[in-house]
Design goal:
mainly alpha, 83% helix, 0% strand, elongated
Length: 167
């Protein structure tokens, strides 16, 4: 019996470690997307005529955006989508927020589809970019809020149990 308990503890520790690594990676990817989003939005709104720079930034942003969306789904949300999450507080939160989180990739993919092939874009398309970025920004803000709820719940569940003092 003792061996099984040690093995269970080891598995739980490994799972917590993997979860922390996945969350750290997601946050790093998200921060990169947000920085690129800010820079691209600033460039798209500016009065400069540097179309090539805007197109280069746009192409890099599209790739990073797709990577970020995929990372969340394939790393963080995978266990839930596959029905492998056993913790009640996580599954209850997932039931509430996952439908909305799952909506955000469609907006990102639509944005990507419009702008990823920069060789087909002209100045007219670039002048419309701020409007598309605004809609995408709203979706990203919603996703980040829901993601943070999810991450905070995951991290709360991964904290060791606190010992209570006798009364």
């Amino acid at each position: 019996m003792k061996m099984s308990s040690q093995n269970d503890t080891y598995v739980a520790t490994e799972r917590r470690s993997r979860t922390h690594k996945e969350i750290k990676q997601l946050i790093e990817e998200r921060n990169s997307v947000l920085a690129q989003y800010y820079n691209l939005a600033k460039q798209a709104e500016s009065d400069t005529d540097d179309l090539n720079n805007t197109l280069e930034m746009l192409q890099e942003f599209c790739q990073e955006l797709v990577d970020y969306m995929a990372l969340g789904h394939f790393e963080i949300y995978r266990r839930i989508e596959e029905g492998n999450e056993r913790r009640d507080d996580i599954t209850k939160l997932a039931d509430r927020v996952m439908p909305r989180i799952n909506d955000t990739p469609q907006v990102a993919i639509a944005f990507n589809d419009l702008f990823v092939d920069t060789s087909k874009l002209d100045e007219t398309a670039v002048t419309q970019l701020p409007n598309y970025l605004a809609k995408l920004g709203e979706e990203l803000a919603t996703r980040i809020d829901l993601e943070d709820q999810f991450i905070n719940t995951l991290l709360d569940r991964n904290k060791p149990e606190k010992a209570t003092a006798p009364a």
